[in-house]
Amino acid sequence: MAAEQSQAQIAALPAEALTALALAPWNGHPYHRHRPDSPMRAWRFGPHGEGDIVYLILNDQRRVDLLVVLWLA
């Protein structure tokens, strides 16, 4: 159920949100400001910052896992 819900959220996101995240995931802000090198990041998107994605970078697997997608449409 959770995977299906995540897939639906991802499919509804604007292309620019995912393209920028896919090309440069380390450009997101550290999720925990006291751990700036943490692989858990946050990416704000939209012309007025209406969306936020929290994700985990898994470098050894060459993978980015989306943890939370917030989007005010």
Characteristic terms for this protein:
alpha+beta; 4 strands; four-stranded antiparallel beta sheet; globular; 27% helix
Portion of residues within helices: 25-40%
* Alpha-beta classification: alpha+beta
Rg to the nearest angstrom? 12 Å
Task: Indicate the mean pLDDT.
Answer: 84
* Distance between the first and last residues' Cα: 23 Å
Based on Cα principal axes, name the global outline: globular
Say how many strands there are: 4
Can you write the helix and strand succession as a string? HHEEEE
Given the structure, what is the number of helices? 2
Catalogue the unreliable spans. none
Describe the protein's architecture and organization.
With 73 residues, the chain is α+β, with helices and mostly antiparallel strands. It has a 4-stranded antiparallel β-sheet with strand order 1-2-3-4. It has helices at residues 2-12, 15-23; strands spanning 29-30, 40-45, 51-58, 63-71. It has 2 helices and 4 strands.
Topology:
Blueprint: H1 2-12, H2 15-23, E1 29-30, E2 40-45, E3 51-58, E4 63-71
Antiparallel strand pairs: 1-2, 2-3, 3-4
In brief:
By secondary structure, this protein is an alpha+beta fold. The protein contains 2 helices and 4 strands; from the N terminus they run ααββββ.
